């Protein structure tokens, strides 16, 4: 059942080109002019009614929500608040019929997410579920559902669910942007074309994992690792650090690079590995200056950048490249090396990759 792979996690990492392709394939117009989300049937008046959107989820799905906020705000220009389900449900959120609440859940069974969804409904909000399991409790409870077609995810560490959630949030944002005319038809086409390139680009990353394996073996016995990045790179940093913690038990922290000076820089000492994500062109120079700050404290910096970026090599000890893409889609590629790093670090340390200690695949109790 593991199809020749040693663990479900690595099998599922390798399934991402297919999972991403299946999630988008029937939802893009043949001529790339638009995203077709027949499951929604919204018109521009429906969208006008959404004064604010809430995205609520747990764990990795929450991290997909952080990226989703960025997509919707940037493309569809609707304000979005992202929250962790266990916080949202108990904080008396200010919701009514002028809101849309989007819950994201691979399993569709996470109890806090389900409770958050019920609370949003009770307050009158419209609801949309993004889930991977057809007929799950969350799918049944929401007004609308968009399924991620990732196929069954068995490993506790979520991988292909995350990338397909990002693709879904991206398609949703482009769909909303088209309806609201907040992006030009040309830009929308460009984004859809970039989306179509992803499966091939994911495949390209997965063809050459040796350098990442080497880093994992080399740094797998460090007890602390830091992930830094700005804007969408920060969102991916959050996911990279969770992945590393949950399966390799290495203490990892993700920091918005600009926040380092406000405390965390005190922890950066000689030899501490820092993974610096630098895929976002609009904050690239700012990220480089943060890289210089950690380098000045003798951290070992691994840069993660888009192919063709030669500048970064001057500032870091090692560079991992991902194929060039629109910066909005970079998270979907950038997370792959981080998943692999976590996987190989866990293997190096002899951890039970598919069933990490104390964790369950689906958290159906509070
Ligand atoms: O099934 P869900 O997407 O609702 O699960 C949410 C989290 O429990 C899940 O993403 C968890 O954080 C993963 N183990 C992360 O790899």
Automatic annotation (TrEMBL):
The keyword Repeat applies. The keyword Nucleotide-binding does not apply. It is found in: Cytoplasm. Residues 43-182, 215-356 form the SIS domain. GO terms for biological process: carbohydrate metabolic process; fructose 6-phosphate metabolic process; protein N-linked glycosylation; UDP-N-acetylglucosamine metabolic process. Keywords: Aminotransferase, Cytoplasm, Glutamine amidotransferase, Repeat, Transferase. It comes from the Bacteria. Its main location: cytoplasm. One of its GO terms (molecular function) is carbohydrate derivative binding. Its EC number is 2.6.1.16. The active site is at residue 361. It catalyses: D-fructose 6-phosphate + L-glutamine = D-glucosamine 6-phosphate + L-glutamate. GO terms for cellular component: cytosol. Homodimer. Catalyzes the first step in hexosamine metabolism, converting fructose-6P into glucosamine-6P using glutamine as a nitrogen source. This is Glutamine--fructose-6-phosphate aminotransferase [isomerizing]. It comes from Dendrosporobacter quercicolus. The chain holds residues 244 to 609 of 609 of the full protein.
